[in-house]
Amino acid sequence: MLNSANLPAEPNHDVYKTLLESTKAIPWRIDWKTMTFSYIGPQIEHLLGWTPDSWASVDDWVSRMHPDDREYVVEFCVSQSRAGVDHEADYRALTKDGDYVWIRDVVHVVRKDGEVEALVGFMFDISERKQTEEHLVRLQKQLEEYSFQDGLTAIANRRMFDTMLEREWNSAQRSQLPLSLIILDIDYFKQYNDHYGHLQGDEALRLVAQTLSLAANRPRDFIARIGGEEFVWLLPETDALSARLVANKCLQLIRQQQIDHQHSTVSRWLTLSLGVGTTLALEGAKALEFVEQVDKLLYRAKHNGRMRAEFAVFED
C-alpha cells in the first residue's frame, strides 16, 4: 500500500492528501501492470470495515463484490480500461460484517505512451440513492397494479398521494429537512363547467395536470389530483423560499396557457388559487394536520380574491 514514504516529495502533497481523505468519496489508484492498489483512502474502513492495508490487489476488490454483480462489473471495467475509456459502475460491496453496501466506482484511465499505466478513481456510497430508486420502482409497480392513477388526467390520484405523503413525512422527520406542500384549486370551476360543458371542463383539468407535470423539476416532486378541480404538489427537502418560487411558477404557467374563462370574476383566463405550506415535521407532529393547515391557506387565498397564493411556515 502507498504510505507517506512512497508519496512524491512535493510541497503541496500533504494538502492534496488531506483534501482527498477528508471527503466522503473514497479515492484509490491501481497500477495496471501489476493489478495492485498503490493507494486507497482511509475512508474505506469507515464504509466497509476493511482496512486500507487489506486492499492489496484487484482480487480483493473482486472477492468483495456481490456474486450477482461480479461477472458483469468485472468484464465491463476491464474492457473499458483496456480501451482507455473512462467509465463508472454500480455494484454491491461486501462489508466486513457480512452486509452489502451499494457503491459507485468512477474510473479514470491514465495512459502513458499510448499504453494504460494506471486506473484512478473514487468510490461513492450510493446506498440511500439506490433505496430511493428501488422504492420509486415499487411505487410505480403499485401505480400500475392498483390503479393509483387518476383516470382523467393520467397523474397520481388521492390514494397515491396518501402513500407518498406518509413516506415523505417519515423521511422529513428522520432528516429534519423541510417539507413543503402546495394545495391548489381552479378558480370558479363550477361556473366553467356550467358555461363550457363537462367535456370542455375535463379537457381543462387535463391541461392543468399536464402543465403542472411539466413544471416539476426534481424526481421526488410529486403531483396528484385529489378530487374535482383540486390538485396537490408535494415538495420534499424544499424550504419556504423554494416553495414560493414553485407556486409562482404554477400561477405563471397556467396564465400562459390562456384558457378562456368568460365567467370568472378575476380574469378572462382560467386561474388558480394556492395554499403553500412548509414544515420541519417535528417529532409528534401529524401529516394530516399539516395538510389541513395548508388547506386553510388555500381557502384564505380564495377569500382574499383568488388568482393568488397564501404562504406560511409551520414550526410545530
Short characterization:
By secondary structure, the protein is of the alpha+beta class.
Spans of at least 5 consecutive residues whose pLDDT stays below 50 are: 1-9
State the strand order across the main sheet.
Answer: 2-1-5-4-3
What can be said about the biggest beta sheet? 5 strands, antiparallel
Number of helices: 10
Tell me the fraction of residues in β-strands, as a range: 15-25%
Span from first to last CA?
53 Å
Question: What class, by secondary structure content?
Answer: alpha+beta
At the fold tier of CATH, the topology name of the largest domain is Alpha-Beta Plaits
**Relative helix content:** 40-55%
How many separate structural domains? 2
> Regarding CATH, which class of the largest domain?
Alpha Beta
Structural account:
It is a single chain. This protein has 2 domains: 13-125, Beta-Lactamase (2-Layer Sandwich); 129-314, Reverse transcriptase/Diguanylate cyclase domain (Alpha-Beta Plaits), CATH 3.30.70.270. Helices cover 43% and strands 25% of the residues. The protein contains 10 helices and 10 strands. The strands form 2 sheets. The protein has a 5-stranded antiparallel β-sheet, with helices on both faces. Strands 7-8-6-9-10 form a 5-stranded mixed β-sheet, sandwiched between helices. The two termini are 53 Å apart.
